[in-house]
Amino acid sequence: MPMAGRLAPRYISIDNMRSIMTQLTPSAIRKVQDALSSSSFALADFNIHLPESGSCLLHIDFRHRDGYEFRVIETKQKSKVKTSVGMGSFGPTREEVSEYTALFTRETPGSFKMQDQIESSYRDSLFL
Fold first, then answer.
1. Cα–Cα–Cα angle for 32, 37, 39, nearest 5°?
2. Which of 4, 27, 31, 63 sits most deeply, having the most CB atoms within 10 A of its CB?
3. For position 7, what pLDDT does the model report?
4. For each successive 10 residues of the chain (128 residues), what is the average pLDDT?
5. Which H/E stretch holds residue 49?
6. How far apart are CA 119 and CA 91, in angstroms?
7. Pair 124, 91: CB distance under 8 Å
8. Exposure of 46 by Cβ count < 10 A (0-12 exposed, 13-18 middle, 19+ buried)?
9. How far is 110 from 77, CA to CA, in rounded Å?
């Protein structure tokens, strides 16, 4: 029975992948399952939530201890670059702003803080 204010557990089985609406591909979900299964714990020790929409792509929480969570979040970020316009380093500058999609992992508890947020590229991502 789920606790008030908490997401209901959503256990993922590759066998019923066709019936699940998620933002992640079946191969990405399989990688998550494989990573959790090859840890010191069993897959059943975790609740895996796969939101159908929104910025959170994946939410994993440890069933045996409240507050232990791992999330994969996709968000738009802005990057500012200043470039010199002629006249060398001391001349006028132009600022360009570009927007890109960033992938973050949010780990609670973190290694350094109560919650760490780490930006990752899609190519270097552990799970995707």
1. 100
2. 31
3. 45
4. 43 51 84 88 90 89 90 88 74 83 85 80 57
5. strand 46-49
6. 34
7. no
8. buried
9. 22
